Amino acid sequence: MDLATVESRAEPRAFSPKHDLPEEYRTGATRMLQFHANSEIMGAYLEKPFIRQSPSLDRKLAFSAKVQDEIGHGQLLYRAAEALGVKTREQMLDELANGEGKFLNCFHYEMTDWWETPMIAFFVDGAAMKRQATLKNSSWEPYAHAMDKICFEEGFHIKHGEDVLRELATGSKREQKLLQEAFEEWWPRILQFFGPTDDQSTHHDFMAKVGLKTASNDELRQAFLNSYVPKAEKYGLEIPDEPRIHYDEDAGGYVLEEDDLDWEEFFAITKNDYEPGLNQIDTRAAAQEAVEWVRTSLDASDSPAAAAAGGD
Amino acid sequence: MRYEVFRQDKPGAYHTHCGDVHAPDREMALLFAQIQHGRRMQTNSLWVVPKEEIGEVDTDEAAFGGTTDKAYRWATTYNVDASFAEEIEASEREQAAEERKRGSDD
Q: Which of A66, A124, A158 would best serve as a mutation to test chain B binding (most B beta carbons within 10 A)?
C-alpha cells in the first residue's frame, strides 16, 4: 500500500498487521506507540512508592491496583507497537533503560509526598485520558483495541485520584496548604502536557493525515482545561497567577500565555537531557537489570516454563 | 481435524468465536469456515485455529477475580462526580455494566 492509499483509507481501525503498510506509517506509529508505552511504565514507577507510602490500607490497595494496571497498559502498547514490525519489545525496553526512549514530560519529575499524588492521579491521568479517548479512533487497529481496554480501566484511576484530591482539599488546614503548594509546583508541567501549540508540532500533519492522530494538541489542551480548571476551583485550589491563563468568551475557551512556561526545560526533557529527571530513567533501568534473571530463566530452553510451553 | 472459527464482522472490530469446522488441513478449514460461518452474518474476516492449539483455563481451575472484595479497583466505588468529562463517564459506565454482569453470575 502506498502513502496516498493509506491517506485515502485512513478510517478508524482501518489498518491491521495483515496490511502491507509503507515505512513512513510504520515508523510514525511506532514512535507514537513507543512513547505512549514508555509513559505508562514511567508513570507506574512514579506512583509505585505510594503502594507503601499511602496513609491507609484502602489507598495502598488502590495504588497497588493502579500501578499493576499501568504496567499492563505498557505491555499492551508494546505489543501494539511490535506488531508494526519496526522494533521489538526488548529493543524498546532497552531504549527506555539506556535513555533513548522518550516519554511524557510530567513523568520526568520526582513525586515524593502523598499530597502530590492527585497531580498525577487526577490531573495528568485526566489529561492523558482526553488524548486516549480520541485514540480509540486510531487507524492502527491494535492501538485502538489497546485503547478500549485502557480507557475501560482509567475511569477507576481518575475517580480514585479525584477522591484523594477531595479528601486533601476538605482535610486539615495543613493538608490544604500542602495541596495548594503541590498544585503550584505541578500546574505548569501539567499545562505543558500537550506540548507547544500545533504550528510548532513537527509530526502532527502527517500523523493526522494517516489517521494515527484524530485530535490536535490544541484541541486536547482546550478540552482538558474546560473539564479540569473548574474541578481545581471546585476543590478550592487557586490557579497560580503565572503562567497566565484566562477564559475568553469570544474564543470559547481558555487562553494560555505560552511564553510564561519554561520551554527550555520542556525541550531538555523531551530529549531526556533534563538532569533531575535522569534519576527516574536510571531507577527503572536498575529495576530492569535486577530482574534480568527472570527473563533469562523464562527464555532458557531447559527451564520448566519453556518446557511447559514447548509441550515436549 | 477440528478448527475453531472466529469472525470479525467489520474492519477494525474484534474477532469473536462463532463456531467450528471439521477439515483435513488449514486451507480446507478456511474454505469450510467461509461456507459455514461467513455466509449469513456480516463478515469481514475469519480466523481459523486448530482446536488443540487453543489453551484454556476456566473457573474450576482459576480465580478470575470477583471472589474477593476488590471494590477499590472500580470507578463506581468513588463518590465523586464523573460527569465533568465525557470520557471518564464512559469508562465508569462500562465498568458499571461489567459489575452488573458479575453480580448476576452469583
A: A158
How far apart, in whole angstroms, are the C-alpha atoms of residue A281 and residue A45?
Answer: 10
Instruction: Determine the pLDDT at residue B71.
Output: 87
How many interchain CB pairs under 8 A, A with B?
89
- Domain harbouring A196, CATH code: 1.20.1260.10
Burial class (CB in 10 A: 0-12, 13-18, 19+), A159: buried
Q: A130–B85: do the CB atoms touch at under 8 Å?
A: yes
Alpha helices in B14-85 (DSSP H): 26-37
Amino acid sitting at position A195? G
Name the burial class of residue A20, with classes exposed (0-12), middle (13-18) and buried (19+) by CB atoms within 10 angstroms of its CB: exposed
Sorting pLDDT into bands at 50, 70 and 90, what band is A198?
low
Using a CB-CB distance cutoff of 8 angstroms, which residues of chain B are in contact with residue A65? 70, 72-73
User: What is the structure's pLDDT at A307?
Assistant: 59
Instruction: Name the residue type at position A153.
Output: E
Write down the pLDDT at residue B73.
87
For A151, name the nearest residue in chain B, comparing CA atoms only.
Answer: B91
Q: What is the CA radius of gyration of chain A?
A: 20
How far the first Cα of chain B sits from its last, in Å, is 37
Q: Tell me which chain A residue has its CA closest to the CA of residue B75.
A: A156
Rounded Cα gap, residues A70 and A47, in angstroms: 10
Q: Which domain holds residue A200?
A: 3-310
Which residues of B fall within a CB distance of 8 Å from A231? 84
Determine the length of chain B. 106
Domains: count for chain A:
1
Distance CA B47, CA B26 (A): 10
CB A239, CB A229: distance < 8 Å:
yes
From the list A232, A230, A239, A114, the residue with the least C-alpha distance to A172 is A114
Is B73 touching A (CB cutoff 8 A)?
yes
At A113-166, the pLDDT tens digits run 999 999 999 999 999 999 999 999 999 999 999 999 999 999 999 999 999 999
Instruction: Name every chain B residue with its beta carbon within 8 A of the beta carbon of A144.
Output: 12
| pLDDT score at A303 | 60
pLDDT in tens, B70-87: 888 889 899 999 999 999
How far CA A74 is from CA of A34, A38, A97, B10, B94, in Å, comes to 9, 7, 14, 27, 21
